Amino acid sequence: MQSKSARALYLIPYGAWILLFVVAPIALVGYYSLFDLHGSFTFGNYRNFFSSIYLRLTLSSFWYAFLITLFSLLIAYPTAYYLTKTKHKQLWLLLIIIPSWINLLLKTYAFIGIFGQYGPINALFAAIGIGNKQILFTDFSFIFVSVYIFIPFMILPIFNAIDRLNPALIDASRDLGANSWTTFRRVILPLTMNGVKSGIQVTFIPALSLFMITRLIAGNKVITLGTAIEQQFLVTQNWGMGSTIAVFLILFMFIIMLFTEQREKGGTGNGRNR
Questions:
Q1: What is the CATH number of the domain that holds 234?
Q2: How many degrees, rounded to 5, is the angle at CA 88 between CA 84 and CA 92?
Q3: Predicted confidence band of residue 175 (pLDDT cuts 50, 70, 90)
Q4: Would residue 233 count as lying in a domain?
Q5: Is the dihedral of CA 112, 116, 118, 121 positive or negative?
């Protein structure tokens, strides 16, 4: 009886935190979404969200988030796999994670210099006779910088999943005559899918709401849901519409989390107890 009361007591700070910093902000956003620009109660914001403008904006956000997640995954998975095979894998992993500690704004401004008309990339192009190219304020620069920023967050969960993989299962697959591709497709990938799902969550969800990179790197040529929220709150001062977009963004995040829900599978462990 005492242990139950102690557990309940320990849950109070956690419950207070969830209530104040999760439930209350979401409820506040939902509340503001029910008011128009003049402060009158309305459901018009939700009706406006389903207009062609916001539907195109939503599709565009999902498309760019998909591309960022896809390229991050294509780079991160083989990188994480080969990291687990290196001698000093923890050191190499740390070197990959360290750039994520640098302020996002500083990294963004660094790429403005790198991709600018007088940056090192255009200097190289000029040296080999290609001439200056408009790299900044393009889809390429936006996706490139976004992938660079999200790569460490994609690598880390995949690395942990591969590192925990029982090598006895890979040996058994080889002993049964499976080639490297079949072993990867039928053994390694399914057993590390939880790491892939975690990487997708921490990449796709934030990529839906990017706004700083869209302004500084893409020059507002790429508009996402995050950019739209920023414009509604800071430019047009339409908190109701901004909150409505935020409500749908939160809804999309929950749906993505449901689709990437993790299920425990066997096959982890170091396999040294065979």
A1: 1.10.3720.10
A2: 75
A3: confident
A4: yes
A5: positive
Pull the structure tokens for residue 39: 């402060």
- Residue at 24 is within a domain: no
Percent of the chain at pLDDT > 90 equals 58
Residue 206 belongs to domain spanning: 33-102+135-259
pLDDT tens figures, 98-114: 988 988 889 999 999 99
Q: Which residue matches tokens 């660094």?
A: 110
**Which residue, 50, 75, 99, is CA-closest to 155?**
75
In order of 51, 178, 204, the CA distances from 185 in angstroms are: 42, 10, 23
| Count of the separate structural domains present in the chain | 1
Contact 218, 266 (CB under 8 A): no
pLDDT at residue number 31:
96
Report helix, strand or coil for 164. Answer: coil
Mean pLDDT for 249-270 is: 76
Give pTM, 2 decimals. Answer: 0.88
Residue 269 lies in a domain: no
Contact (Cβ atoms closer than 8 angstroms) between residue 257 and residue 201: yes
